[in-house]
Structures are given as C-alpha cells and as structure tokens.
Amino acid sequence: MSYVTIDQVTKGYHHQVVLENISLTLKKGEFATLLGQSGCGKSTLLRSIAGLEDVDSGSIFIDGKDITHISPRQREVGMVFQSYALFPNMNVFDNIAYGLKMKKAKNIKTRVTKMIELVDLVGKEQSYPHQLSGGQQQRVALARALVMEPKVLLLDEPLSALDAKIRKNLQKELRRIQKELEITTIFVTHDQEEAMTMSDRIFVMNKGKIVQSGSPVEIYTSPVNTFVAKFIGNYNVLSMEVFHKLVHSTELNGKEIAIRPEVLQIVSANEGHLGLHDNWGIKGLVKDVSMTGNVLRYEVETEGAAFLVDNLHHKGKMFEQGAQVQIFVPKKECIIL
Amino acid sequence: MRKIKKQKFYLLALLLPFILFVVGFEIGPLVAMLRDSFHADDGIQVTIQQYVTIFKSKFYLQAIQNSLVISLVSAVISVIIAVIAAYSFTKFSQKVQNRLVMIANMTSNFEGIPLSFSFIILLGNNGLFTLLFSKLGLDVFAGFNLYSWTGLIFVYIYFQIPLAVMLIYPSYQGIKKQWKEASSLLGGTKLSFWLHIGIPVLLPSIAGTFSILFANAMGAYATAYALVGSNYNLLSLQIASLVSSDVTLKPQLGSAMGVLLASAMIGAMWFNNRMMRRIRRDLR
Known about the structure:
The structure holds two protein chains of two kinds. Chain A is of the alpha+beta class. Helix content of chain A is 27%, strand content 33%. In chain A, strand 9 and strand 10 (209-214) form a beta hairpin. By secondary structure, chain B is mainly alpha-helical. In chain B, helix 2 crosses helix 12 (251-279). The chains are: A alpha+beta, B mainly alpha. Chain A binds chain B through residues 50-52, 71-73, 75, 77-79, 81, 83, 85, 87-91, 98-99, 102-103, 128-130, 144-145, 148, and chain B through 176, 178-179, 181-189, 192, 196-197, 200-201, 280-282.
C-alpha cells in the first residue's frame, strides 16, 4: 500500500511545461530523492506536494487523502528550505515552537525540548538565528518541521549551502533522524553523490519528467539512457559504430554503449594482454591526468573517442601526460543503451 | 608609508568642505544656541532664567504641548497609512512599483509655503473644492476649516505620508517569501504571519520612521506659518517670532525653546529605540 501517491501531475509556467505527467508512489517510512539538474522541475514537484504551487492537472494523495487542492497548512507536511527560512526575530526555542503554538498544541515545552535534543542543539535554545552557524540553522529548520510530526517531510536542497565537511556530517545525521522517526521523506538535490548515500530510492528527473527510478545501486549500475548515464556516474557513452571500430568486434549491438570510468583498467601500451577473452583492449594517449585524492582520473584519447578512466591511486603507478597506454574494457561491464 | 600618509592627507583635504560646513552651520549654531539659552536677555549674565520663564508661562507651555500633540498625532497616523500603502506598493509589478516610488519621492519634497498655498487654493474658505462641493449641494467640507487644528493636522499628515512611505517601503523587500511559506506550512494564517513575524521584522524600520516623522513635524515651520500664521500657538512659530520678530526680539529665550525642541526630538528617538529593543530581543 503506497503512502504517498502522485498521479499524472502536470504543471506549466507561461506556456512552458515544468512537470509533465509525473506519477510516483512511496511507501511509508521511505527516503526518496528527486535528483536532477537545476530547472528539471524537482523543486516545483516538491513545492506542489507542499501546496506552495498549484498543479494544472493530476492528483496528490498522502495516506489515502487527496490533498491536491487543500491549503499548505492543512496538508500535514513539513518542509526544510535551502535558505533555512528561520524567523529572524525568534530564538531557537520559539522558532521550533511556532507551529505548535499555531496549532494550540499541548506540552509545547516538552516536545520542543525533546526535538532540540534530537537535533543536538541543547544549550542553544535562547540563541537567535544570526548567532548560529549554517549547519546549526539547518538543524533548527529540521527540528521546526519535525516537531509537528508531519506525515511527509520535504527537504529542498537543505544541505547545498553548507561546506563539504558539515554537509557530510549532516547527511548522516539526517538519515539517522529519518530512520529513528521512520518518517516518509522526499529529498531534492542536484548532487548525485548525496542522493546515492542517503536514499532508499532515487527518482532521476530531466526536463519535467521522471526518467528513471530505482535503488541507488540500480540507478548507478543500470542507467536506462544517456542522460542518466552521464549525470549519475560520469559514464563514457559511445555510439555503437565508434565502439565497433575501436574494439574491432561487432559482438555487442545497440544504439549506444555506456562504460563506467572505474571499471576500465589502464596499463602501458607495451604491457601484455589482460585476459583478452573477457576484455577488449584499446590503445590511446594520456591527454590529461588529475587527482581527486584516492582516485586518479585519466583522460585518454583513442582513435575516435575520448575515455575517462578512474583508477585507485597506488604509489609509483601513475601515467604522465603524453604516455602511450592501453585501456582494457571488461565485456560484462558494458551497458547497452 | 609616506605614500599612505600622503594619500590620507588628500582624502582629509577632500573632506574639508564638509567638515567646515558641519562645524560652521550645524555644530556652531548648536553650541551658540546652548550658550545663549543660559544667558539673560542682555546676553551677558549667565542664568537659567529663560527656562524658568518658559516653564512658568502658560502660553509657552501650550506651544510645547501643541507641537508635541500635532507631531505625535500626525506621525502616528502617517506611519499607519504608510505601512499599509507601502505594503500595497509591493503587490504591483516592479515597473509600477518604480513609478509609485517616484511619485512618493516627488511628493515627499512638496512642503512648506507651496504646499500650504496649494491647500488654500483647493480647500481654503474660497478653495476650488470647497466652492465646487457647495455649488453641487454636497456639504463634504461644511464642517472643515483649513485654518484650524484639524486643518493643520490634515496638512501635516499630507506631507508626512510620502516621506514615511519612502522610508518604510525598502524594508518590505527584507520580508522573505519563504518565511511566509514556512509559516503557512507550520499552520500559520496570513494574520499570524504578520503578527508574529512580519510586523516584528518591520518594527525597527517603523520605529525609525516614526522618530523621523516626529522630528519632521516638530521642526516644521513654513507650512504652519503660511497656513495659520500666528493664529495657532506652535513651538516652531514661537521660536521664529522670538529670534526674528520686530516686536518681541528675545534670541536667548528663543534659544532655550530651541534646546527644549531638540531635547523632545532626542527624547522621542531614545524612547523609540528602547521600546524597539524590548520587543525585538534579537537586535541586542
């Protein structure tokens, strides 16, 4: 039984379609991510679920109730914004308590205190937003949404304004809290790595459509088209014609072929063959080499195509720019698109 | 090092006209006013007699009271109207907003004798509208006398509103759309947003505008002079007659009243600031 159902939602602005026939379902307690480049419609979809945008057609259901046309305050959804959107004139406690006060809830103090403990902000109750760091402000925003015990938590790129280290910490913490409260969460991001680490399920969006959905492993290892392949994992995407010429074989057939950079092996040009039965060998020239710490990324120019090759960084095993090399393509790692 | 010193010297030299101006026309007169206020009419003997005269005279106390009341009333009414007007500005397209701000800017400079004259022509005893409406048989202005306290307040409010709008309008830009969205998702209505977030955020700007309007009204002279002449007892009119009249030339007494006028303005600003900090604790 699905907990959140989005059924054929369409929305346009000024004769331009932003969401085109979007349908998806989520189970209770699931952490789903809408992943895509800016302008793909992911934030609009999230805001439509929140009721901050109207949809032109289609329906949205949460827990069996049609919420398509009701006001945001009646939807029982919580939202965390990229810019935190904390109320500047209220301290941490009052920011978190605001929703409960609006609802005239009971035990406000106990509930807010508990939430402050959950997001690890004890001692900051009396601080004002401008006295907090970005990470702390985001925790307040999260607590403010969670204290209302919403049916669905919506997160609109909540971590993108933070620096890398704090972002990594908050990713883990967000996931911990989400699992602890078992709250159904929809997360919007343009960062594929963030989507991979956090989600139970990813919906990849492009030009107002969902182009693929699945678990992070499924999305990463079996992209359905060129867009997903390139967006999700820096895949090398080649036309089949070029690939046939490169490997002197017509064993594979299709329109295009996608190969992940990390499955390619790089050896010097005169080195022996690496199990030719399972691999294809392609000769080339190292055009560029860059290091991302533990990974060396080579840009190898071959006859007719350029490859990205990611290898782990081992001491003394590095090819310089201009080196003649051979790359091995494992047959079973080739994905036909 | 020498280069930097030289550069600083040039910068200071460029500032010199401004410094001279401030010292000569602002600080100088202020010091002179303070000094004169503590002198007797002969200008030699040091005394607090001028202040005693003011506080013993019902006439002068009434002038102070009238000025305070007209300033407070016109500032409060203008701020309320401006808060609503500036908000309605923000609901138009950017193009219309720019035009509206331009109109507010122009009208905010319209005060003094020309303003009073315009009002006399339109709403005076023989004013265009007064005659027009009476000819049409509509007694809209029957009970209205431009040269009375009501008339004076009316004109004060008129010249205060555009200034207040100009001062409050920019602070609406600081109200973020996402605060409204967050509030509505947390169960707040539009009213609760404005009560708990919108107005408290605007408050420093509203309070600041109030101080400026209060000071503006306290010091307004030409508008009142042209409209009511000496028929109405106002602090600014009394000071003027004491320092420049042919009949009752008493510059020392005028100075003492000037000091009281300045004190009232400073007092209003201080009170404002204190109140604001009590409500907006995050600004401490």
